[in-house]
Structure formats: structure tokens, C-alpha cells
């Protein structure tokens, strides 16, 4: 996929986030790593459901524009760049406010029950990073501890963050995260069974082989 196609793909994923109500108004942001010190990031002040490829900004590792663009990069660009800095192998980051996941983030409760095979394989458990003021360096600082061992994290009183080797994987992790949070809301805790350790081990063996 070339750079222009990647800009189009960001717009496509933005539409999906908006249509699935994972973001309201101008919320959320998406980024892709093109190369070392070279990234695509969504603009600030634009709905993710209405982006066109010319709106996607190309920035360096300090968040400075590499291409002319009248729009400004997302106020959460620093959070994205910080994640790329810590996790060298990843290629994309998605930040959104999906309702069920955000509700858990507001409650300060992570997603820690092993109830769904897909969630276990794709996400493991999803912790909550302590509250930080959006668009400040507080969020990258709170998230740092969770990057290495997780594929996604809830941001307390805020929303959710996922990453992956490419945008498709980062987006799918956000979908799985929201589905997982939704099921947790729907179940009757008292009667909900968890997947046994034996079956979890079996599940991991099967997926690691692929
Ligand atoms: Zn947000």
C-alpha cells in the first residue's frame, strides 16, 4: 500500500469508527507509521466520519508537518508518537470513545474476565491507565507502563486506545475491545462462567501454531 492509499485507508477506518458510534463529533484519532520519523495522523477539529485523504497530515517524530496542510495534527499526536517510540514493531494506533469500553473506563474497571476466546487471543486483559488530561503529556505518561504487555488499554474517564502491526489489526482490536466490554455489561456476573486455565492453554497453543 502506497502513502496515498494509506491516507484513503485512514479515512475508511474513520468512517467505520464514526458509523459504529465509536466516536462522537470530532472525537478520536488514528495514525500510521510509514517509516522511522515519518507518520500519517488525523487532523484536529474534523469528524473522523467525514475525512478526505487531503486532510490526513504527514508528520515527523516530533509532530512537525512534513507536507503542506492547512489543518493541524490531532491534539493527541504526542500520545501516538510516544507509543511508536516505545513499541518499535507496531504500525498503527487507534484512539476512540466506544460507549461500552468508555463506560468501563469511567468506572475505572479493566476488562479482566476470560469469557470470550477471541478477546483472550486478540487482547488478553485490558487494564485501565490512570486519568490524564487529554492532549497533554499526562496521557502518554500514564499509558507507558501498559504498552509492553498489552494490545490495548482503557483511559480512565476518557476512552480506549489500541495498537497493532497495521491499521486493520489496531482497528479490529478496538472492535473486539468494545464487543468484550459490551458482553461484560450484558452478562449476569453471578452466573457467568470463565474459560478454564486448561482451555486457555489449549487456545493459545492453537493460535500460536498459525
Ligand atoms: Zn479521546
From TrEMBL:
One GO term (biological process): pentose catabolic process
**Per its UniProt record, what InterPro entries does this chain match?**
Aldolase_class_II_sugar_metab (IPR050197), Aldolase_II/adducin_N (IPR001303), Aldolase_II/adducin_N_sf (IPR036409)
Mention one GO molecular function.
Answer: aldehyde-lyase activity
Quote the cellular component terms of the Gene Ontology held in the record. Answer: cytosol
Q: What is this protein called?
A: L-fuculose-phosphate aldolase
**Residues in Class II aldolase/adducin N-terminal domain copies:** 8-185
Keyword annotations from UniProtKB, A to Z: Lyase, Metal-binding
Q: Which organism is it from?
A: Halarsenatibacter silvermanii
Pfam families (alphabetical): Aldolase_II
